[in-house]
Amino acid sequence: FSPLPTPAAAEDPTEPPPRSHRRGDRRSHAAPPLPRDVAPPPQNPEAGVSRLLSGGSGVGSAPARARSATRPAPQRPASCSFRTACCARGSRALGRPPRPGPSRLHGPRSYWSEERPLEGGEGTWGRPRQIIVDDDDSKIWSLYDAGPRSIRCPLIFLPPVSGTADVFFRQILALTGWGYRVIALQYPVYWDHLEFCDGFRKLLDHLQLDKVHLFGASLGGFLAQKFAEYTHKSPRVHSLILCNSFSDTSIFNQTWTANSFWLMPAFMLKKIVLGNFSSGPVDPMMADAIDFMVDRLESLGQSELASRLTLNCQNSYVEPHKIRDIPVTIMDVFDQSALSTEAKEEMYKLYPNARRAHLKTGGNFPYLCRSAEVNLYVQIHLLQFHGTKYAAIDPSMVSAEELEVQKGSLGISQEEQ
């Protein structure tokens, strides 16, 4: 979509309108280099739009400010019927007129032209790093990698069915500021759990990561458990944080339709996903989170949605005896969400020794509307690994007193075992 012409351009009909930077541009996969990192090249290096995280001119410089002032602002496409319907439904519940425009919950894409990108990674907020690890060039992993690269056991975020890598932007901004290395993923089209686990293992090999901490939301949490189960003989998962997640796909009563999602058109798949969103009265922050997730849902294609729903409903369950030695934190909410009370109780039975992080409210997306609480629980979970080789934080960010306390508590726990 092209931005609106400036007044000067409108007076001259012979001058073509300025072109905005297309976010979907990708390099041809005809002859990919090794390693096959297919992050799209910058459109205009002098404009300062696609600065790499590892360098580039700062936004505070005069040339950068001048370029920002002269560059036309990118325009977002108008909302489609599904987004409008969901916003209208939430707005009626709140007793206010519908908001057909973009959500007020600005994600990373709103920072792509003015904010300095996070240090220590490749790509920008507007364009995530894209990597191919399978023989099929159409399977592209998208990720944001932020934080110190010296950390070899980072925290990796896996999104839900309707999410993309940038739905965890609040966690990336906060945790990297405290010295953690964080990676937010968006997985490609996989139709089977075993196929996903094999592709994820290849991605970790490409990133040269032996073990990682996984944070999974809904479907992402189930896939994190399946990957830990898949690699139990040669462990690649050091700990798990499961947010509004489940351990058995039969709770959705859709196992008999799982193999037919690939036939359904995109609008029908989106309608299925939107049916699980909150429809009752919600506070403004939760309403903005729903609007933002609807916007992310609209960015997904038919094959991506169909494959995620297939993984979400395909008959499968977690075998707890294979991952019983992994530290687990179960994070859930007390208000309305897509998970039933029975599904939550089943998770508690599956992990009796897991830590429990309860949020009074938060709905389906607490990492967006209750990000401060979620970030606090994440830090508490990762605190037990400080001072070890599996710490996800830069050692220089941890005080000596905190390390002494952590070593003392670690020694007590080992004696109890």
UniProtKB/TrEMBL annotation:
Its main location: cytoplasm. Pfam families: Abhydrolase_1. Transmembrane segments: none annotated. InterPro entries: AB_hydrolase_1 (IPR000073), AB_hydrolase_fold (IPR029058), Maspardin (IPR026151). Keywords: Cytoplasm. PANTHER family: ACID CLUSTER PROTEIN 33 (PTHR15913), MASPARDIN (PTHR15913:SF0). Belongs to the AB hydrolase superfamily. Interacts with CD4. Interacts with ALDH16A1. This is Maspardin. It comes from Piliocolobus tephrosceles (Ugandan red Colobus).
